[in-house]
Design brief:
Low-confidence stretches: none
Number of helices: 22
Mean pLDDT: 96
Distance between the termini: 61 Å
Number of domains: 3
Length: 534
């Protein structure tokens, strides 16, 4: 066995599992990891960010854009805490992100000695924010711990995991068994009898409905086939968008499907908790709900289904489709009905201006395969319920965590993962300032993201709520902003300023074609809120 450092053992394990990019910040506790990355001679691209939150969000963006594991690295203590919001967002999105966290020397852990960057219980903190977390106590453990971590990332319900690496363990040289191992995914057996019952229920249904979430993103072809067999609307919100092409008449956003819910006799939930329909829309004893989820513990959250099936959709849906062929009744096409429901929603939502006009410009500029990353801003909120999405993983949203400021750095990671397609980040002036320093990273790494900053010099959504719900008690929402064009240009990015959808349409194709980081500031006034449709 070769004698190598702990850092070299970690890098070898990363390469074994196909990691080719690492987002992170070097620091004294991680020196021997970065020494090993240097010695790997570019086998792993290191994108060093200006802040730990940027590193974590960029890894999140890469994972969401590809469905594959991504890795970030930060120093211990404040570095881990800075990365915490990204970890929490990854947890909410079931995103396969590996955080390699530095740690103080092994003998000092838990002794409250005041060592640089010491936390009272860093591993406990990481376990509270991840699916699984562990410590590498010896260089020889590194290959196995990384293998176990990747197995946890991808087995069952995906989610972020963390490995902390004491600085002396990274430096220590010892015999390490190589090559690093690769472990199989833990199996999730499928109850075929339950699948048969689901096929019978759906086959007999007169007005079935399918609701999809982020867990169905990798099963789009099977979901589309299911929709065609059942003549069922497929309803997506936020992370379920794009599984069925918005141009397909079966595809509806969540509010557009509200009028069809009351008459639906069998509803199939695929990789989603469907919180709004099952908790806020009227329930009926005549409606049967079938839920498929890889996590057995999640089946009864929010609402107990009439039939729950535990399993990966990649395993369950082919079985369900095969059985459905035997049980399925003939149904007339529902195209006219579903197109009418969509048209009615477009009529109701037309009040969301200028958001819809801006989104039309963005949709046109992105073309067939471009990716839009939303943010907690009025244009972002409107995008979740009005923006047409054509393909899986081309609409990236924050999920239930609702993390203000996530959008711009996450979009940088999306663009790193998909340099072949245009990527646009939409953000407000408030959210953009959370991580604006990553403009430096974008320029240095030549990440050709186009960022649209909708600027109204306030936390506009909060102010709207203060005015409408709290008697106009407006407080702590006004903002003083820099000149975003001058600021972006000072970083070395291209920048433009526009004030209308028409002006955006004139400059957006040029911004995309430049292949460089571009910031477009869009001056806006107050916009109508999407809250009226919730």
């Amino acid at each position: 066995m070769p004698r190598i450092t702990g850092g070299q053992a970690v890098v070898d394990a990363l390469l074994t599992h196909g990691f080719d990019t690492l987002f992170g910040l070097p620091g004294v506790q991680n020196d021997w990891l970065y020494n090993a990355l240097y010695d790997a001679d570019g086998a792993i691209r290191v994108i060093h960010t200006r802040h730990e939150q940027g590193a974590m969000y960029m890894a999140l963006g890469q994972a969401l854009a590809t469905g594959k594991p991504a890795v970030a690295n930060v120093v211990p203590g404040p570095g881990v805490l800075n990365a915490g919001a990204g970890l929490a967002t990854a947890y909410a999105l079931n995103a396969p992100v590996l955080l390699l966290a530095g740690q103080i020397p092994l003998p000092a852990i838990g002794r409250s000695l005041g060592v640089l960057h010491e936390l009272p219980d860093q591993l406990g903190l990481l376990r509270s924010l991840t699916k699984w977390a562990a410590r590498i106590d010896d260089p020889a453990q590194a290959p196995w711990q990384v293998a176990l971590g990747v197995q946890q990332l991808l087995s069952g319900r995906p989610g972020p995991i963390a490995l902390e690496m004491p600085m002396d363990v990274l430096e220590r040289r010892t015999e390490v068994p190589l090559p690093s191992p690769s472990l199989p995914l833990a199996p999730t057996p499928v109850d075929t009898e339950a699948v048969e019952r689901a096929a019978e229920l759906l086959g007999r249904a007169e007005r079935p409905m399918v609701i999809v979430g982020g867990g169905a993103q990798s099963s789009a072809p099977d979901v589309r086939r299911l929709a065609a067999l059942l003549e069922a609307p497929v309803v997506g919100y936020r992370n379920g968008r794009g599984i069925v092409d918005s141009r397909d008449y079966h595809s509806l956003t969540q509010p557009a499907a509200r009028g069809l819910w009351d008459a639906a006799d069998v509803v199939l939930l695929l990789g989603t908790h469907a919180r709004v329909p099952v908790q806020k829309w009227p329930q009926s004893r005549d409606r049967t709900i079938v839920r498929v989820d890889v996590d057995a513990a999640a089946l009864a959250r929010n609402h107990r289904p009439d039939l729950g099936i535990t399993g990966r959709l990649q395993d369950v849906l082919p079985l369900l489709l095969d059985r459905l062929e035997r049980h399925n009744r003939h149904r007339a096409s529902r195209e006219e009905e579903l197109r009418t429901a969509r048209a009615e929603w477009e009529r109701k939502s037309a009040v969301l201006e200028p958001q819809i006009s801006y989104l039309r410009v963005i949709r046109e500029a992105l073309g067939e395969d471009g990716i839009l990353v939303d943010e907690l801003t009025q244009v972002g909120f409107a995008s979740r319920i009005t923006y047409p999405v054509y393909h899986p993983r081309t609409f990236i949203s924050t999920g239930y965590m609702g993390t203000l400021g996530y959008g711009f750095p996450t979009a940088l990671g999306v663009k790193v993962a998909r340099p072949d397609v245009p990527v646009i980040s939409i953000t407000g002036d408030g959210g953009f300032m959370f991580a604006f320093a990553e403009l430096s990273t974008a320029v240095q790494q030549n990440i050709g993201l186009v960022t649209l900053v909708f600027n109204n010099n306030k936390y506009g959504n909060v102010e709207q709520m203060q005015r409408s719900r709290y008697g106009g008690r407006v407080i702590a929402t006004e903002l003083v902003n820099p000149d975003f064009v001058v600021m972006a240009e000072s970083f070395g990015a291209e920048a433009y300023r526009v004030s209308s959808p028409a002006e955006l349409a004139a400059c957006l194709p040029k911004a995309i074609d430049s292949g460089r980081p571009v910031v477009i500031e869009i001056s806006v006034a107050d916009m109508p809120s999407v809250d009226q449709f919730r």
